[in-house]
Amino acid sequence: MSARYGHSLAIGSEGKLCAWGDNATGQLGDGGTTSDHSPEVMTLAAGVTPTAIAGGYEDTLAIGSDGHLYAWENNANGELGDCTSTQHNRPEVISVDTGVTPTAIAAGNYHSLAIGSFMPPSVLPESPVVLALPAAATVIFGAAAWKAARLRNRDRTPQPTP
Q1: What's the domain count of the chain?
Q2: pTM of the model
Q3: Sorting pLDDT into bands at 50, 70 and 90, what band is 130?
Q4: d(Cα 59, Cα 54) in Å, to the nearest integer?
Q5: Tens-place pLDDT, residues 91-111
Q6: What is the span of the domain harbouring residue 95?
Q7: What is the phi/psi pair of residue 111, to 5°?
Q8: What is the CATH number of the domain that holds 140?
Q9: Is residue 162 one of the residues assigned to a domain?
Q10: Confidence band (pLDDT; 50, 70, 90) for 142?
């Protein structure tokens, strides 16, 4: 379950994603902007169930059973991580680096966070063996990425991409 600034999300007992509340910036992911005061089932993609959800001030995220990162809502600060500031009223797959699988997500006021595991294809064995995964990678989208880049590079240019 996740609740933040006027909208709520929950994963039901059958693995379905439900959303309700304010929808002025597409936070319910149903394609519209009409608020709904009772839980409604929504879809990430055909046949995909959510494994994690996070609702932020102007960003909503989910990790799907297909291993993809999904994001939707306002995106004015690039917090969805899709290299734009375009609002999405339905879940969109967000591209991450090859070999990275999202494992945890968080949505803030004007930024989003994703943690992923990484296994480069070049180290995959031909026969089954136990391998230790490298340390997790953290990706920041939106205003927080801009602030981090500004501090690191003294650059005031917004950085909407991971």
Answers
A1: 1
A2: 0.75
A3: very low
A4: 8
A5: 999 988 777 888 889 888 887
A6: 2-153
A7: -155, 165
A8: 2.130.10.30
A9: no
A10: low
CA–CA separation, 45 and 70 (whole Å): 9
> Residue 6: its pLDDT value, please?
84
Q: Choose among 83, 157, 15, 12: nearest CA to 93.
A: 83
Which residue's entry shows tokens 């602030």?
147
Is position 159 within any domain? no
Beta partners for residue 101, in sequence order: 117
Strands across the sheet with 2-4, in order? Answer: 2-4, 7-11, 17-21, 36-42
- Is 161 inside any structural domain? no
Amino acid at 61: L
pLDDT digits (tens, 9 = 90+) for 37-88: 999 999 999 999 999 999 888 889 999 999 999 999 988 888 888 888 899 9
| Residue 63 included in any domain | yes
82, 40 contact by CB (below 8 A):
no
Non-local CB neighbours of 114 within 8 Å, separated by 6+ positions: 61, 69, 81, 96, 102, 104, 105, 138, 139, 141, 162
